[in-house]
Amino acid sequence: MKASIKVAIQGELGSFSHEAAERMLARCAVVPCARSAEVFDRLENGSVAAAVIPIENSLAGTVAEHADLLVARDVFIQGEFLLRIVHNVIAAPGVKFSALRRAFSHPVALDQCRDFFRRYPKIEPVPFYDTAGSVKHVVAHHLPDAAGIAGHHAALEYSGKTLQAGIEDDKRNFTRFFLIRPLKTKSSAASAEKKGSSASVLRYQRLIPPGANKTSIAFKVKNVPGALFKSLSVFALRDISLSKIESRPMRGRPWEYVFYVDFLRGDDEPARNALRHLGEVAEFVKVLGIYPAA
Questions:
Q1: Among residues 35, 28, 30, which one has the least CA distance to residue 11?
Q2: Collapsing DSSP states into helix, strand and coil, what is residue 141?
Q3: Which of 128, 177, 219, 235 is flagged as catalytic?
């Protein structure tokens, strides 16, 4: 039997990231990490072969820390997955719904269940560090008046009892996850040393999976009139469709911004020409990943 690939996630076992990892990589060995930076540290030091991270929620928007880490760290996006987010009220076995007075969960999850708390004003929403962690907490401590709000995986992982299922306000609530791999390996570092700067493109080309038809990049424009227009025109001139554009503050450089763009092309000649052209008009360009669209 093939050995399980180690995949890092931020959060506890039973989380939505855990579920996404198992959906993206069958029979993987999930390695939970307390902090997002630890996920990227493990990728870069080789203790895991891949990581699965949430990058965007259809209601809450971009996960800012992960967007920043994708730019700062030497990693490459190999795939994306859209997971339907279903929130459930999960308690320790034997706890009745009528006894609940507190519901623990991540603040984003609590915010996505406002209608539930309006219907049951006696239940207080209590922010917690993690959705699955909230279930782990209430079950481990046998809390008689509390539940966690999390996905079905958390109930299975910690032997919790689901008291109500599907309590989220919006049934079209999805989170977009990225599968990421380390960009720098011993072999690629040796290759770059031999070939010089021309090896930079080859470093990520070896990681592009079959069927890749979507690209994520980050770039910073020069502080001159028309810079953003010129940057975006490199795609328009080649009939390349952008599926997302967003700006984020640049860490350590107040009032300067990085633009994040997804466009619907893989590693083909028009895309390469657009990126070369963008490199001429932007201050920097980083290819974050090239992968099959979900």
A1: 35
A2: coil
A3: 177
Domain positions in the chain: 1-85+173-185, 88-172, 208-294
CATH 3.30.9.10 fits 88-172, yes or no: no
Give pTM, 2 decimals.
Answer: 0.90
**Looking up tokens 């902090």, which residue turns up?**
35
Burial 256-267 (b: 16+ CB within 10 A, else e): eebbbbbbebbb
Calculate the CA 39 to chain-centre distance.
Answer: 11
219 is catalytic: no
User: Does position 185 have pLDDT exceeding 80, yes or no?
Assistant: no
Which whole-number Å values give the CA distances from 251 to 56, 64, 67, 227, in the listed order?
Answer: 20, 11, 12, 21
76 is catalytic: no
Query: SS3 of 186, please?
Result: helix
The CATH architecture to which 1-85+173-185 belongs is 3-Layer(aba) Sandwich (3.40)
200 — pLDDT class (breaks 50, 70, 90): low
How many residues would you count in the chain?
A: 294
Q: Which CATH number fits domain 208-294: 1.10.340.30, 3.30.70.260, 3.40.50.12780, 3.40.50.300?
A: 3.30.70.260
The answer to whether the Cα torsion of 206, 207, 213, 215 is positive or negative is: negative
Cβ(236)–Cβ(283) below 8 Å: no
For 85, 140, 155, 210, 265, the CA distances from 92, given in Å and listed in that order, are 22, 8, 9, 45, 48
Annotated active-site residue in 40, 81, 104, 175: 175
pLDDT for res 168: 96
CA distance 155 to 136: 9
